What does this fold into?
Amino acid sequence: MRSFEDTYRHKGLRMQLVKVLKEKGITDERVLTAIQNIPRHYFMDSAFDKIAYEDRAFPIDADQTISQPYTVAYQSQLLEVKPLEKVLEIGTGSGYQAIVLGELGANVFTIERQKKLFDVHRRFILRDKYPRIKYFYGDGFEGLPTFAPFDKVIITAAAPYIPPRLVQQMRTGGKMVIPVGEGHVQRMLRLTKQADGTTTEEIFENFSFVPMLEGKNS
Ligand code: SAH
It folds into this structure.
């Protein structure tokens, strides 16, 4: 069961969350405003309503998680999204990160490999509010060649390696934010695509994501 009521109490809790994210080092005001504006409790079972604004990950369907707000803010900040940019997201999950990107004004193409999670977005209450977000059921390792090139690519699952097809689908000068590593911990990387097709790499903090898996799951 989900509850779609956004009360003053929820807004107050979001203000607290934004404060926590600032204390943890998030500085991008646009990202903080997006988090202030989005009712995160809409993305979770109402059993979690009271703790939806703690800075932690939560279970959703199909043994997946909605990422920790700090992680969402961190990746969104690194992505440096500008309005109307084309952004490819791998791992729709709850859809929260996609909606943060939508709030930042991006044209979002988001892919989920779990059919059960994908199906939720067909009738999600915020869907009509963000017509610039397009949802796809598929394998993120393949990307979306039909819609390439993308200005930005964001991977929200632990990638065992940098998927070559996603690099191909970036424009020159485009950026990819990707947690790479196969164990319990991944290193956040930001790649920038060069004119010769190679990428330069910046290395950031460690995070812990659910794995990025090959193929689709019905
Ligand atoms: N962005 C999400 C985070 C969800 S967790 C949010 O804001 O809630 C990561 C998601 O990536 C899971 O839903 C998982 O099913 C999905 N995933 C893993 N491997 C994938 C792949 N190859 N293609 C698409 N989605 C994938």
In short: The chain is about 25% helix and 25% strand. Residues 64-67, 90-91, 93-94, 96-97, 111-114, 117, 139-141, 156-157, 210, 212-213 surround S-adenosyl-L-homocysteine (CB under 6 Å).
